[in-house]
Amino acid sequence: MSTATDAPHSAAAPVFELSDIGVRFGGIVALDGVGLDVRPREVHGVIGPNGAGKTTLFNVACGFVTPVQGTIAWHGKPLDGLRPHQLAGLGIARTLQGLGLFDKISVLDNVMVGADRHGRAGFWSGLLALPRSSRDERTLRERSMTVLDELGIADYAGRAPASLPYPIRKRVALARALVAEPELLLLDEPASGLSEEEMSELGDIIEGLSERISVMLVEHHMDLVMRVCDRITVLDFGKVIAKGTPAEVREDPAVLAAYLGNEVTHDDSVHGLNGGENA
Ligand SMILES: Nc1ncnc2c1ncn2[C@@H]1O[C@H](COP(=O)(O)OP(=O)(O)O)[C@@H](O)[C@H]1O
Ligand SMILES: [Mg+2]
Question: Which of 70, 88, 109, 261 could join 21 via S-S bond, C-beta 3.0 to 4.6 A?
């Protein structure tokens, strides 16, 4: 959550906007008229019970799933059929649950791969032994080390990801997303597989990031969502059932009903919704 001002985002034009998004998988309506906008330096959470459509919405935002209806706009300009390879050029980075790291090259090299938005003569040309500027490489290496340091994993720069525990690998994947200096970071369940303490550190990291970039956070750990998000969009059965600040969403009867109605997540979710501040 940005701490620059008390009402940091209310007047700002959105960076990223999903409007009236519809997605169908065969006969299943996964998303129906869903919209949200992410403002500059906002952390925008997407929550909802299992099957609500969160991952589908994330995949639409990444260009993995093409909606049958609706528009995606970047800085107010509609994108005509967003594809995953366009994200970096726009200034959008993402991390995925399957981390997608190269296990046999070093952590540092993995992070340097993420920098193609800025690297003129990039990592791949290096691998292919094409001529490139050693100055570019030095700059990229330094920037990658800075990001690793910010995330507290600089000590692992020379290690192979395969040799590291999952929470560290998750940070490497985050570092790789951040080294491109995105304007918007899309995070899908970043807290999954983390301990309470690691989740709290992740909260610190996200709060730090929101001083300079926007974040769309799909996450089911309520404590984290309630702590770091400026605004939250709540999905249920493919529709938006509530939107607002954490405090507004937490009290919203439709949200409580959606979580209470969901047996699988009943205990966790209700506890999390109401106990987020104290946990
Ligand atoms: N690739 C797919 N094929 C068919 N149905 C899918 C697919 N992905 C998701 N769905 C369905 O779409 C709905 C929303 O799923 P999802 O976006 O994964 O929800 P969430 O992430 O909130 O748990 C669910 O009914 C799910 O079964
Ligand atoms: Mg999901």
Answer: 70
Residue 189 in tokens = 């369940």
State which H helix or E strand residue 224 sits in: helix 222-228
What average pLDDT does this structure show over 248-266? Answer: 78
Which residues approach ligand 1 with their CB closer than 6 A?
25, 28, 30, 48, 50-56
Distance 32 CA to ligand 1 centre (A): 13
Mean pLDDT in residue range 169-198: 93
Residue ending a domain, choose from 136, 164, 181 = 181
Highest mean pLDDT among 119-133, 164-178, 265-279: 164-178
Instruction: Please name the residue ranges forming H helices in 114-159.
Output: 123-127, 134-150
Q: Do 87 and 148 share a structural domain?
A: no
Give the CA distances from residue 135 to residues 120, 132, 202, in Å, rounded to whole numbers and listed in that order: 11, 9, 33
- Residues 147, 222, single domain; the answer is no
Q: Per-residue pLDDT averaged across 125-141, rounded?
A: 67
What pTM, to 2 d.p., does this model score? Answer: 0.85
Residue 71, strand partner residues: 19
Instruction: Quote the ligand 2 centre to 151 CA distance (angstroms).
Output: 25
Mean pLDDT of the chain: 85
DSSP assigned state of 7? S
- Give CA 29 to chain center in angstroms: 24
Report the candidate in 16, 199, 33 with the shortest Cα–Cα distance to residue 93.
Answer: 16
User: Closest ligand 1 atom, CA of 57?
Assistant: 17
Final residue of a structural domain among 131, 146, 181: 181
Distances (CA, A) of 130 to 118, 124, 134, 156, 181: 17, 9, 12, 28, 25
Assign 84 a pLDDT band (cuts: 50, 70, 90): confident
Q: In the chain, what is the straight-line distance between the N-terminal and C-terminal CA atoms, in Å?
A: 18
What is the percent of the chain where pLDDT is above 90? 66
Q: Are residue 263 and residue 153 in the same domain, yes or no?
A: no
